[in-house]
Amino acid sequence: MEPTEPKLPSEAIELYNDFIHGEISRRAFMEGAQRLAGGLAAATVINALMPNYALGQQVSRTDDRIKATYETVPSPKGNGSIKGYLVRPVSADTRSETVTKLPGAIVVHENRGLNPHIEDIARRFALANFMAFAPDGLTSLGGYPGDDYKGGQMFNKIDKDKMSKDMVAAAMWLKSRPDCTGKIGATGFCYGGSTANMLAVRLGADLAAAAPFYGGPPAPEDIPKIKAAILLHQGELDTRLAATWPAYDQALNAAHVPHDGYIYPGAVHGFNCDATPERYNKAAADLAWQRTIDWFNKYVRG
User: Fold this and answer.
1) Domains of the chain, with CATH numbers?
2) Is the dihedral of CA 175, 176, 177, 182 positive or negative?
3) pLDDT of 204-242, one tens digit each?
4) pTM, 2 dp
């Protein structure tokens, strides 16, 4: 696999990641972009870093191969309820008079709520013949506001323990649906990657597989609770998170958990997100996606 190097300086990618993770203010982000612009206008740098969801859409919302609805799931131990985007392939329900049961995939967003990119990922799962549910952790504050910056501000106000319980409720709701086989996997990105690991800990045997993208590992003492098959994706240039893999790998070995992990050359944090072209690494993203589908076909469909 040939690495795809970021077009802007790596400092610009790091600046954007610090901004979206709430580590620097909007003003600091703008000032940093100005400093890094060099011969470019600061606005050019900022626009290059910010998401373009139309550019990153692979499956249209109106694609006639899918059926998508928004569903609200009870979460009495969390924030009361959590809303999410449920997608099934239409083909599964046209083969017979009865609804075909499908394996499920929980798709968890980054730290900005259920934005259009994550909904697109859910639609991609539907085209791979899974039923996908993408919950919105911002539900209790009105849901994703249509703007990633505002979504990040809202995310920081949510009770994280209650949001985790909302995600558990969403996963168990999907698993128990009559049109689900009862086997589910979880994937997610950044916060969602950490959440996929969290679900593996909290759900035990109720989760068949997890494929976290650039997420933090569980606490060492929690890893023996995992029963799901774990497939991990990290970017080589996302050094802090990539460095957590050897210890996680060793602990999963000790716990006899089926697992595999990949560090993608030349890939930064967020390398899967084709809506942020300066972070997107097509070679890494395509390979990670195919590995995820193969993993879920083996452990969730199998």
Assistant:
1) 1-50 (no CATH), 53-301 (3.40.50.1820)
2) positive
3) 999 999 999 999 999 999 999 999 999 999 999 999 999
4) 0.92
